[in-house]
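Deadline looming. Please check this record:
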Amino acid sequence: MDYIKISTEDLLDWLKKNLCEERYEHSLGTAECAKMLAEKYNLDSEKAYVAGLLHDCAKCFSNEKLLAIIDKNLDIEEIEKMNCKTLHAPVSAYIAKTEFGVDDEEILSSIRWHTIGKIGMSDFEKIIFLADKIEARTREESCAAPIRTLLFEDNGLHKALLQCYKQTIKSLVDRDLTICPMTIDIYNSLQAKVK
């Protein structure tokens, strides 16, 4: 793969050693789904596959390790530290760059923002975000199917993203978890694009 400095086999080996079995399967599923979405939307499918493989590469690090890497090497907003489940995203982008030599900004940004997202995501960032939520290997069909269906409608990327945010916000509320204000801003922005 041209986007990483090691072979695919070495990358898969690293992922097997550093991820639990389910997270490894999820990464493969995300890569496959990202490649398919890239082909559908005329984007670079090899690049999407790499981003999908790497998007969760730091997911199984301890919270202490994630925070140590963030505090030492990254500049992220304090508000992003509200939910430990999203800390792996900026760290995964950092690992992709430092461990695997990824220098493609679109790959790094798509990994960085695959959990919370951001206003003004590129189509490439959108497909990595969506592939993470709808891949077929580990995601529940009841949650993924409504999102997948929307991808085939006019303005499908925005409609699918909006559905993701609806489901995410509902899930956070149902579990009595804090909602990052960025999530609300993105939701409102997508509402405007879909209407």
Remarks:
- The mean pLDDT is 95.
- Residues 21-40 form the longest helix (20 residues).
